[in-house]
Sequence to fold (800 residues):
Amino acid sequence: MSYQSSVAQDSLAAAQLEMAGNPSLALRRPFDPVAHDLEASFRLTRFADLKGRSCKVPQDVLSKLVESLQQDYSQQDDQFMHVAIPRIGIGLDCSVTPLRHGGLCLVQTTDFFYPLVDDPYMMGKIACANVLSDLYAMGVTECDNMLMLLGVSTKMTEKERDVVIPLIMRGFKDSALEAGTSVTGGQTVINPWCTIGGVATTICQPNEYIVPDNAVMGDVLVLTKPLGTQVAVNAHQWLDQPERWNRIKLVVSEEDVRKAYHRAMDSMSRLNRIAARLMHKYNAHGSTDVTGFGLLGHAQNLASHQKNEVSFVIHNLPVIAKMAAVAKACGNMFQLLQGHAPETSGGLLICLPREQAAAYCKDIEKQEGYQAWIIGIVEKGNRTARIIDKPRVIEVPAKD
Amino acid sequence: MSYQSSVAQDSLAAAQLEMAGNPSLALRRPFDPVAHDLEASFRLTRFADLKGRSCKVPQDVLSKLVESLQQDYSQQDDQFMHVAIPRIGIGLDCSVTPLRHGGLCLVQTTDFFYPLVDDPYMMGKIACANVLSDLYAMGVTECDNMLMLLGVSTKMTEKERDVVIPLIMRGFKDSALEAGTSVTGGQTVINPWCTIGGVATTICQPNEYIVPDNAVMGDVLVLTKPLGTQVAVNAHQWLDQPERWNRIKLVVSEEDVRKAYHRAMDSMSRLNRIAARLMHKYNAHGSTDVTGFGLLGHAQNLASHQKNEVSFVIHNLPVIAKMAAVAKACGNMFQLLQGHAPETSGGLLICLPREQAAAYCKDIEKQEGYQAWIIGIVEKGNRTARIIDKPRVIEVPAKD
Fold:
């Protein structure tokens, strides 16, 4: 194993520069490169040409492979005949592997991507929350270990590296701590683009995870975070780019964009852990997290894995305030209202018994102070998902 | 979790193109791009500007971070007071984390790097063997799960991608199968450079791993694979580059280089699993695997972790035939005889009781058909390692 590179400077102190002595995200000031002795023009997001979904290989190409992997699994199932737990996870958010030790199984996931916000500390937090989210989507609330995967951009000066990498690592480790787990190692390499990600691993009893294949007719769909993170992140970058900004300035103010950007960072860095815990309390029938393939992409994937002949119909789209208008002003570029806009570290999309859904939403808001929304229903069908023609857009928050 | 990208073509058949119907590596033909409908000039190694150690962040920078991580651990040790097993692994090959479940612990490692051979299938096997090697270095012989991490180069044509990526994946998965484990998922992104790596995870009883801190005066050091993989890989690339080739053609023939290259691929793709199993049989006092920081770098790291006041003295350097001469002809470029030449998926460097070492070497040769060598001794000292002034170079194999 190799270990993350960094200078041993006090990254904690550095990480607190924007905290104004207050760790609450709400009061966190924007990342100020100058305060860290970097050029005012420093932008972390410039260390990669791709962001969000664009760094993913297309879903159809992936699904082809999933088939070929699935075959390998059927073979392996034979080896696991003596084990009660089937191998699952292909095409789902985590892999679940039966272990040699009494009834336990290994739930594991990995993810990494490129910088999409300019605050290195927040980028680290978001990357960690994003990796953990795959566990939470399976209803797993305890993570036993994390590894960090970092690529240090060849284009970074030594000074930039020595400021940015410790901040990213600190953010990642702070989120891990918040999740009740820790980072015991990882790998860092030099790479043209800056890459950030990790591995999350849990060893648990089968009753600790929820196989997301149990939706039934009459269930409703709950979403635990608003959409529009990618739109907000892009709009914020356009503040530096007059020609792009001119395309949206008629529908949104600079302050709207800054607020949306901070809401997006707040949302992306939020753990889906309580959402996962409540899935057990309210008997969720399955869940996935909304990330690179957008709400509809992940909804379709979840629908395709259902045991029952059901399909998902989505009526409501909660979106970070003003970002729906921005998306419209950009024509088809984001496909936000079509459900294709990539999200990073998005919310959980959960199938809940109708009579439990309202209580779930009320409970999560009580515990977290964040809203969740009933966005659709589960009806009889052929394991597909769709958004109705004129979905209702819910501005989040309703007003400032 | 995302999944490896690939077209669902029959990568197995493709992988067998060079097999001549015989899966034995010895009889494997060189990778032929044309046989896969690629340009004759296709070279996988051209999809990254860095190779071997150069993709690593310098060891001194890493060690600084290791300190800062170590602090986090001491804190966590408090949380684990009730657990008999201490958290270890920082600066070692794996992390070991106590679990919530009866006395079990999680042993985990990750590694990824850039293509260093031009045969995609072999590259996949080498990457897998390299990740697993960290487990084997801790004496762990069973791997419960693997994840694959792939970066598809933005410079690859779609055709190249569709040929190369499935071959890499097949090689990786074949090695995992050979190791008695399987790949249940991973992540694939698009990246300027092609990257290949993975995660290896084991859940085991404390008696299944060997904490590598128990060397005592009088022990001897055994190495299970020859050095010089990096030299062989570079020399082979120089066959295409007259100006580089001219620097070494006086000391080595083209056939020598091709033989060395295939020995290197054979060696790098070989699992250290039997070497790990025999560590238990012959009461090894500790071990590490020789990779990016070279023999001396890893020997020094292992020495620094010893409980007793010992140091390591290395007298013998087993080197792939003719590669010592090539290294000398290149002046200080490789620092092979100084112990600094990076290796990929190198052998285990093991501290064994003197009276057991010969039996260990005989046993591994009997089981694997590959030699291991006693290369040094453990004496009283300050936890450092050194190579004597005029080490004896052992040509491997002695003759053809």
Q: What stands out?
A: The radius of gyration of chain A is 21 Å.
